Amino acid sequence: MDAIFLQFLNGLDKGGAYALIALGLTLVFGTLGVVNFAHGALFMLGAFCAVMLRKIFNISYERVSETEVDFLGKPLKEQIPYLKGIFGEDLGGFMLDYSVPLSIFLAVIVMGIVGFIMERGLIRHFYKRPHADQILVTFGLAIVVGELIRHYFGANPIPQAAPKAVSGSANIGYLVGLGPNVIYPWWRLVYFAFSVSIIFGVFAFLKFTTFGMVVRAGMQDRETVGLLGINIEQKFTIVFALAAIVAGVAGAMYTPILPPDYNMGMDFLVLSFVVVVVGGMGSLEGAVLAGFLLGILQSFASMQAVQNLLPGISQIIVYLVAVVVLLTLPRGLLGRKGVMED
Amino acid sequence: MSAAEDIANEPGRGFDRGTANTVLHIDDVHKSFSGLHALSDVDLDVREGETHAIIGPNGAGKSTLLNVCVGRLKPDRGAVVFDGEVLTGKHPHEINQLGVARVFQTPEVFPELSVLENVMVPALSKRDGHFRLNPFKNFFGEKALRDEAENVLESVGLQAQLTDMASVMSRGDKRRLELAMGLIQHPRLLLLDEPTAGMARHDTNATIDLLKKIKEGGMTKVIIEHDMHVVFSLADRISVLAGGRIIAQGTPDEIKENPKVKEAYLGEEQV
Amino acid sequence: MDRKTNLKDWTLFLGFAAVVLCLPIILDPIGANYPDLLQKIAIFGIFAIGFNILFGLTGYLSFGHAAFIGVGSYMSLWSFKLLTMNVLPAIAFSVILAGMFAYLIGFVSLRRSGIYFSILTLAFAQMSYSLAYSVLTPITNGETGLQTRAIRTDPATSLLDGDIRIIDQALGIQEASVPTTHFFGMAMSGYTGFYFCAVLLIICFFIAQRLTNSNFGMMLKAIKSNQNRLNYTGIHTRPYLIAAFVISGMYAGLAGSLMAVTDPIAGAERMQWTASGEVVLMTILGGVGTLVGPVLGAGIIKYAEQKVSSWNEGILDSFFSFLPEGLQHFMSGLGALFVGEGWHTTLGLLFMIIVIFLPGGIMEGIRRIAAVFARKSKSNNTSAAAPQPAE
Amino acid sequence: MSATKDITRRRVIKSGAVAAAAAGATPYFFTRAFAEGGYTNAPKGDSVTFGFNVPQTGAYADEGADELRAYELAVEHINAGGGGMMDTFSSKELKGGINGKKVKYVTGDTQTKSDAARASAKRMIENDGAIMITGGSSSGVAIAVQGLCQEAGVIFMSGLTHSNDTTGKDKRANGFRHFFNTEMTGAALGPVLKNNYGTDRKVYHLTADYTWGYSQEGSMIKYTKDYNWETVAAVKTPVGAGDFSQFITPILSSGADTLVLNHYGKDMVNSLTQAVQFGLAGKQVNGKDFTIVVPLYSRLMAQGAGENVKGIFGSTNWHWSLQDDASKAFVKAFGEKYGFPPSQAAHTTYCQAILYADACQRAGTFKPSEVGKALEDFEFDGLGNGKVLYRGEDHQCFKDVLVVKGKENPTNKFDVLEVVEVTPREQVQYEASLLGGELGPYNNG
Predict the structure, then answer these.
(1) pTM here?
(2) What does the domain layout of chain D look like in residue ranges?
């Protein structure tokens, strides 16, 4: 019982991350008609916003230590972050501690700019091109972006600590009336809450703003919206930037769970495509549903009892679900007719 | 296929397969799209060798009817019988293999193939059936078929463009190509969806002449057409469709005189 | 027109064959004349030609073709281990098994089209890869990869660690250590291995060329062009698609088999989605739907992987040694972004540039250049002969 | 547009030629590379070419980069006839160059994939005339390249490869391993774990689902069962899973009090980070402190796991904080050149390069069979691991194994591990027959 409850939590947590990545991907599919293989790279860039912010916070001046020595036996040059010098020990320390959540602001700015440039500079010219071309050009871009990150940050994962206040585990067993073994990391609970609120935010944005209404209309029928005299092209830029921002903040907040490295975008790319397709191309609700569904199934498939029954199931569950869903529901869980079928 | 049998074997249904010289029999077909009745109680007989025109105002359900005939849409009720065989529930390619060819209104050619190849595809389909794995039969070696294809293309006036890509053709030329693609199959029944729409007067007349010539060959045709000039110069019989129902049926002269038709259609059209 | 087309086809074929057989001489100036790279170019050329039969002709983008490479490799290895080191049965079995496997996957995946088809093939290939890497270790030897071994002396030894080679044993062939693969005594390593692959590449090219120009090929092109219309023309497209899928799967199986023939080891990573992606890139880079393009793309990508990745900073430094020292370091630092360990960057940029500026791949570039020259020579001729009004 | 294209193309061709020239190899036609000298790539002229085959892209690119740094340093020292551990090495044969020839090198990218690694090794052998191949950062790759070198007739000095199979059932006469293996890790860790954590523990294994993982798990079980360490569960995890939470949560309710992470590289960083996040490290189970063990540590990767490694036991081949003269000399030479201490990957590859060079010098030739004989049963000292034996029966090095622990109070960012115990060679040495396999004869090409 404990185990099942925890696996369910795990599934929700994973599902939150999958849904956040898939959300932007499917939004871009649905409105722009573009298959963006660089979406994983956007997630990775977001994660590196967190790395970067910590780096910026840690820009230091040196002070030669009188007592300590470095690995060659020379006097150690102590690194004192300017941050602490400027904001004082308390506020500076606080900012350092909370660099991951604070990096959301950086991610919003950076990813907004990246999304804007990407759409204007590249994606825009590929609206009318075949999917294969879109895949190739964005895949090429993903490689280049990844390699640039590797050039500056190296290939090894770079750990990012969660703020100290939420770095431990919550003993939620008592809260839900289960045993003492039901503990769960605070940060994962935070991430889950975060992903749910972002998802709701995006839906509310698309539902209640005029802009969102135009976008949803565009997802239904692009030509009609164009005929109404609405400058849909300009809206597309904003949609793309929005997708980039969602992927970016998802990445930044994920860093304490998964130390980021330059290749994490590629790791998530295939998975997020499966999520989008299972949910139904261009369906926002589908992406969210499929994200949580796959997350939960993946968690349960990893349980030993299940693995003993079906060896290797944890490795293939995601793909198996994709195959079954696509063969029984041709357009995915909530897909509409006629989207991306050529 | 099983759907077709289901319909045919439906207890107590036992629908009419038409009389002896009926080629196409449409039996009590209903079709609605999310509550909107596109077709209701449509009964229609097309006789061997005749040219049957279906006319009606926009949105009358003409294209829906054609789509039901070629298997693109499944009727909610009723069936389409061709030469004693139930078409309803069959796949489009099966229906074509039975001898029903369709000429599309908006040209549905193969844009990346040449004009000649566009005609060769249906020709091969007629000869080889719906699938034939013959990977080494060189396409350029099909002398007999190619001669025939060139003849058909000449008859529609495309003999000068054999090697052009279909994608670079004008709309009018594409329509003629469409026609050639239908004709090369020598179908027992040719369904023409507005074969002259968008054509210049001169081309329209040429097309009428061509279709008349084919008529002499005895091919059964169903034509959906807006242009009354075309309809009255070609049709042996006319069915008038309005609001998803057949409101009148008869020879051109009968239809011209029919007050219901005048009210529903001709009046507004011949302004 | 018949004869002209025929002549053009034969010229292309003979030209292709001549270029392939002369690759060692042609590639020598760019330092690519060594057996392994030549073999890889030929093998991936076969893979890409086969992939193009599916993708180039029908437009169906499979992201799972690497699975057939894996099947071909594993099958060949098992043929070496159980039957004989002669490559003939290995190749035959591999191609057949890959074809069967392709039929299974194609039968299911081709129920869908567009991106749904791509994801289905991707899913099947990823499942094959994951299972081969872990659960199927008794058949695939997992991460280490399946290898040929000496004849086992103790029947208790697992077949992974000791071979039996029934046919070779029955023929009484003595083995010193682990024997090498051969084609009736012709060793399959080094340049002979390359020529063996090259001959198969030429045969595969010939088959693909005949296929493309056949009735069958035209139907495939018609599928890409307008599948819907084809249905109303009386063609059942699915068997055509399955046939194309199986044929391209067999090409991939042959390529996988040849990888094992020239280098008897088979690893699961050959089946990873990135390997499937690689062949897509090769095809698009060279030119989708063209016959020569995919081979060209395969050659370029393999060259980049093998050679560009080896230009380390030492080599860069000596290349820029004519520059003043500061500039030299700057240039080799800049260069290091693109070659050596940065060769992926070059690859990524190459794809972007090709797709943005030359959507038809390198073959389109060649055509454009040829067209410019043709126009030039034409205008020269006409201006010399008689003044004509400008176009 | 076309003008710039032209330039890049010309540059590519030109630098291709430079690459070939730098390798000191003239391209050949239809001739076998080893026609002269009786063995593959017998060096002509006054130089000899080493082939450094390391991961430059992919998950182990940083380790590959460190290996490459160490190789460059080793080549420098070999050509100079001194410097770094050359000065402390017990064999004093090398006097600048090998057999009167200067060492040059070519590099290749293994991408941590067997196919790519073999392809780049073949390129170095066939095209660049490499006399030997060395490097690598995973066992699958090492075994694949070792097999290739056997066929091609060159010596392979493996880099980071920890699986038993490399010098066990997949051993080859032309292949030599300096690094230790899962068997030695188990033998070294077992007693230390007992001393620190006592007997009668319930162990939960998370094991990377591939050959090395199985082998590591097996050896940990083998060397702890005498202390009544009972396996509660051994769960296979997909390689590159990223998020391991679904594997970690069941541990809480399994009744286990010890978690062994048979993971390496990125998997290790992720699973350890997440296990600590789940509060495993601070828990009390069965009246004991919950314990995590990481059998194989890599400092580069441990840096990735940050704070989480504190107090966690594991083993390593070498660590820069060792205080013997050789280690200090190496750290000094490396640190002064690159500004940070070397990793165990760097140490191993440096040693392998020096050992190969020394063996060639002692054999007086580069012929693989002679070089191999010079390495067989060669006992040496002064390369940072105490007295080391290159055993002739399986071409495996036997040396002291370091048991390390994540440091509680690191003084700088490289100072993440502290050496708890140096397990003596005798304790980790095993019979060659234990792991099976056949060396077979040397192949000279």
Answers:
(1) 0.88
(2) 10-24+36-180+321-399, 183-316
DSSP D9: H
Across residues D167-185, what is the average pLDDT? Answer: 92
Distance in angstroms (rounded) separating the CA atoms of residues C159 and C142: 14
Q: What are phi and psi of C366, to 5 degrees?
A: -65, -40
**Percent of the residues in chain A that have a pLDDT greater than 90, as a whole number:** 30
Q: Which residue is associated with the tokens 């397990």?
A: D423
Q: Is D176 helix (H, G, I), strand (E, B) or coil?
A: strand
What is the spatial distance between Cα D373 and Cα B50, in angstroms, rounded to a whole number?
Answer: 97
| Alpha-helical runs (H) found in C83-113 | 87-109
- Minimum CA–CA partner of C134 in chain A: A312
> Residue D14 above 50 pLDDT?
no
Q: Which two tokens stand for residue A6?
A: 């925890």
Report residue D333 as tokens: 């030479």
Q: Which three-class secondary structure state does DSSP give residue C135?
A: coil
Q: Which two tokens stand for residue A69?
A: 């020595």
Distance of CA D198 to the CA centre of its chain: 31
In 10 A of CB D177, how many CB atoms? 26
Q: Do chains A and B touch (3 or more CB pairs under 8 A)?
A: no
CATH of D10-24+36-180+321-399, one of 3.90.950.10, 3.30.70.240, 3.40.190.10, 3.40.50.2300: 3.40.50.2300
Residue A284 CB-density burial (10 A; 0-12 exposed, 13-18 middle, 19+ buried): buried
User: What's the CATH code of the domain at A14?
Assistant: 1.10.3470
The DSSP 8-state label assigned to residue D124 in this structure reads: I
- Write the residue in C31, C142, C147 that is nearest to D210 by C-beta: C142
Range of the domain at A271: 2-62+97-328
Q: Name the residue of chain C whose CA is nearest to A137's CA.
A: C352
**Encoded tokens for D442:** 């040397």
Percentage helix, strand, coil for chain C under 3-state DSSP, each rounded to 5: 70, 5, 25
Instruction: Compute CA C29 distance to the chain's CA centroid, rounded to the nearest angstrom.
Output: 23
Tell whether A271 is covered by a domain.
Answer: yes
CB contact under 8 A, C221 and B112: yes
Distance between CA D442 and CA D373 in Å, rounded? 10
CA distance C262 to C258: 6
pLDDT at C381: 57
Residue A72, domain member (yes or no): no
Helical H runs in D286-324? 299-305
Q: Per the CATH hierarchy, to which homologous superfamily does domain D183-316 belong? A: Response regulator (3.40.50.2300)
Verify C-D touch: 3 or more CB pairs within 8 A: yes
Higher pLDDT, C257 or B183: C257
Report the length, in residues, of chain B.
271
C-alpha–C-alpha distance, residues C148 and C162, integer Å: 8
Q: Are strands B245-250 and B237-242 parallel, antiparallel or unpaired?
A: antiparallel
Helices A39-57, A232-254: axis angle to 10 degrees equals 60
Is residue A304 in a domain? yes
Look at A12-21, B160-169, C337-346 and tell me which has the smallest mean pLDDT. Answer: C337-346
First to last CA, chain D: 48
What residue ranges define each of the domains in chain C, with the CATH number in brackets?
Answer: 7-306 (1.10.3470)
CB under 8 Å, gap of 24 or more: what pairs does C315-319 form?
C315/C340, C315/D15, C315/D18, C315/D19, C315/D22, C316/C340, C316/D15, C318/D18, C318/D22, C319/D14, C319/D15, C319/D18
* Structural domains of chain B, with CATH: 1-98+190-195+223-271 (3.40.50.300), 100-186 (3.40.50.300)
Residue whose tokens read 């009964």: B43
The partner residue sitting opposite B138, judged by closest CB among C213, C219, C229, is C213
Residue A305 located in a structural domain = yes
Which residues of chain A neighbour C274 with C-beta distances below 8 Å? 266
The token pair at B132 is: 């034939």
Contact A42, A27 (CB under 8 A): no
